[in-house]
Amino acid sequence: MASPQSEEWIPMFQADQKIVPRSVWGKFARSRWVMVWFTQLLYYGTAWLQYNGRQALLFDLEVRRFFIGPLVFYPQDFIYLTGLLVISALSLFLFTAVAGRVWCGYACPQTVYTEIFMWFERKIEGDRNDRLRRAAGPWTLDRAWRAITKNAVWIVFAAWTGFTFVGYFTPIRELTQELITFTIQPWELFWIGFYSLATFGNAGFMREQVCKYMCPYARFQSAMFDKDTLLVTYDEERGEPRGSRSKKADASSLGLGSCIDCNLCVQVCPTGIDIRKGLQYECIGCAACVDVCDQVMDKMSYPRGLVRYSTQNGLKNSWNTAQMLRRAFRPRVLVYTTVVWVLIAGMATAIVTRDDLRVDVLRDRSVSFRLVEDGAIENIYRLNLMNTSEHQLEVNVGLFNSDDQFKVVENAPIVLKPTESRWVVLHVQADPESLQPGSNAIAFRIQSARIPNNIAQQPGVEQVEEPAVFLAPR
Which long-range contacts (CB under 8 A, 24 or more apart) does 365-374 make? Predict the structure, then answer.
């Protein structure tokens, strides 16, 4: 048995060092900020847009109605959400097959909010070297006030983000009034806090950990790559062997490649990888290393493109951009594109041609049937009438091709307000002599007509048929 002095502890886990990216500017950084501005103006601004006296984009869970501009959806329209998710997934496959993790590098919310939070951080605490210097030293008044200010700004921005998120489920103007008057509901306050905390934690502290360890996309992306996928690559043939040298030195006489081993490509990487080691799953394709390497090449009077967007086949065969782009239209890309556009066209057609009126028919489960005073058999039904338009509808309920065997009692026209959903109870009676024992098939005919707002409008008529079962004694 070994003595206590000879025992050696071997750690099985090593915590990652905090990544402090260096700021960089260039054409790809500008592209990222264009996407930051576009996505955030869309996110924060759309919640305040109005349409026909209501919020233009609202997912009202309380009344189970979802408003997207002039369109109104109900839970029964779940098929459209399924179609949207399928289109989104296939579009992601398409973009990945063509240009790798371009979504991650430019439009993913994790990337966008991390970029915003790092911008606040740089403005308050300085660039990479300043932050590293303060972190290595003791706590001083200067370091403390910068840290407090940074976190305060992060909290305010995260709270605004969480408030806007809840504003898509509770009308944001009402939510603002509730917040001002301290009458906000507990669940609304909970979700504002939850989403604010998620934004603060993910973009302020976890950052690259989300992309490297929590996002499943990083793990299965390689299944969608091939040798003609456009990726951020390092031209090893041109760059190696790497080594530092003066600007005036002749690299060829020193036996060196174009890479001066400045390590700036690592310093600007938001996930902390070295692109010179080849393709790695942590790379999100943001091209920050491309921008900084091009700047170094300019200072050294070398051609740009040591680190660039390219394909494996492009690097191997020294293809130019046009040759690589021609390979972009390969069979898998064409299949993805065709399927996506067919689904988009089909979904758009289904939405445009759908009826203004949606109907669900349910039998009253408390009583199978009953005998009324005149000897007729009566069944009771509950109809859920849903107006999916911005117009008033006049609804008439009857029976389809009943040959007077069945009749609806007290059948008066029903007026549905715009986007209204209403339950209606209907009594259907039949002569027992004309019924088969057990179940009898019937069909409700529901006709709806738009009530015109002015004389010039035409009241277009639509008809919906819903099957049902009429029960009789056995």
Answer: 368/471, 369/471, 369/472, 369/473, 372/429
